[in-house]
Amino acid sequence: MTTLTGDREVRLGVFDEWMGAWSPSTPRDQGELTAWQLDRAWSQAVTLGRGNPFYRDRLKLPTERDSGAFRTLGVTTKQDVVEDCAENPPYGSRTIAEAADIRMVVHTSGSSGQGMAVYALDSADLEAIVRTEAVGFLWAGIREGTRVLLTIPIGMTAAGLWYSAALRAIGANVFSVGPYPTERKVELLRQFQPEVVVGTPTYVQRLAVACEEAGFPPVSSSVKTLIVAGQAFSLPWVRAIEARWGATLYEQYGCTERAIAWTCPGGVIKGDSLGVLHFPPEAGYYEVIDPDSGEPVGPGETGELIITPFGADASPLVRYATGDRVRWIASGACSCGRPLAGIAAGEVERYDDMMKIRGVNVWPASFDQAVFAVETVSDYRGRVWVDDDGTERVEIRVEGVGHPNALAGAVSGSVHRATGLRVEVKIEPAGTLAREVPEGFVKIKRFQVEILR
Ligand SMILES: [Zn+2]
After folding, report:
1. 188: CA distance to ligand 1 center in Å?
2. CA 187–ligand 1 middle distance (angstroms)
3. CA dist., res. 163 & res. 130, Å (int)
4. Which domains does the chain have, with CATH numbers?
5. CA of 50 to the centre of ligand 1 (A)
């Protein structure tokens, strides 16, 4: 238990580190916890189905109250929310909070090309999301006075605002360097000596390269903890980045719609593999379903993450379909022993990201696994395009150590074994790929598809 006091914008209270919980009444038994979450999701659905202008006609409430009946409620998609916000500006008909009660407004980045979804938060909602984000920062060892370099820009997207609010609520010293160029971030890293760096996986790597080029190897810096979000990665990549910084890597999964999951204490590597991102128990009711059948997947199987967030009363959602492909991990399966379910670390992908190459369905993570399985590789970028003869070509640009021909041969062999695809490999000088990473919280895709799917 950790008691957090002090004069803060959002008060946190007493943290139960084992459960990732803030209320002493949250059940500690996994069966009771699931029943409590489902019960809370139902009462939210019933309230919205009776009174909310957006959900009144959408939710057909059955008489049963089990998990199967909950699935009959159907899902809310990003398209639904975007259209509602466009038709009922600015916050959509779901949002019935009074303007004077709204404490924060966030929107999705619009990078999917579908348009932007807008979410308003009242003071209770803000407290709930700050507590949810604080769970993972506390699990990563951040406390009052911990120095944190936050490389994610703070604008209107959720990540920067929520991370910053949670870190400040804990009492960390936050350096919000997001808007500065990388060279300036390196200078501030030297000057402020942060113990923690927060960013995307590729940005943390870019910062490492920039430190090295400035004659300041990251392993010699004050940084002992890295926290990343927004991109898949593999075990060899984690080992390499941890060695490069001399730090332990933690991961957060999160979306603006409040599906949040965090690495437990000890970091993302558990034993010889990547661990689990646990769902904070008070954050919502989480489901992982087969997108074709709508039925729940079994432990260790992949499916779409569906969230019914709690503490999102100003802009409520019931069964929001995230479009994220995750691997479901049952509670108790993590080596930490916590009675909290979750998803496999490093593996979250967008369903939209699946590529069809020469008739073969391939996920970007399959390339990550195959390329990073060659341990001398430090980074790569892939590209699929159609040449003048109408042939689909796959090019992989790689950085790494060792003889270029040997490195190229190892990468093409590994990719061929994993995917069945023949690829062209080009070796790049060290630092080339990192310098191409833009500033900010950009969810970099290592693979670019230049053909229609
Ligand atoms: Zn765990």
Report:
1. 33
2. 35
3. 8
4. 1-350 (3.40.50.12780), 355-449 (3.30.300.30)
5. 38
Q: What pLDDT does 227 receive?
A: 98
Contact between residue 297 and residue 367 where contact means Cβ atoms under 8 Å apart: no
User: What is the 311 CA–ligand 1 centroid distance (Å)?
Assistant: 24
Q: What is the per-residue pLDDT for 406?
A: 93
Closest CA to 92 of 311, 315, 257, 258: 315
CA of 18 to the centre of ligand 1 (A): 10
Distance 144 CA to ligand 1 centre (A): 23
Helix (H) or strand (E) holding 229: strand 225-229
**CA 440 / ligand 1 centre spacing (Å):** 29
In which residue are the tokens 């959900």 written?
Answer: 55
Provide the 3-class DSSP secondary structure of residue 176.
strand
Q: Give the angle subtended at the CA of 69 by the CAs of 339 and 74, to the nearest 5°.
A: 100
C-alpha to C-alpha distance for 422 and 420, rounded to whole angstroms: 7
Chunked into runs of 10 residues, the chain (453 residues) has average pLDDT values of 68 94 96 97 97 95 96 95 94 94 90 81 96 98 97 92 96 95 95 97 90 95 96 88 97 96 98 97 98 96 98 96 96 95 94 81 84 88 82 89 92 92 92 80 71 43
How far, in Å, are 215, 402, 411 from residue 448 at the CA level? 32, 26, 18
- Ligand 1: centre distance to CA 186 (Å): 32
Threshold 0.90, pTM exceeds: no
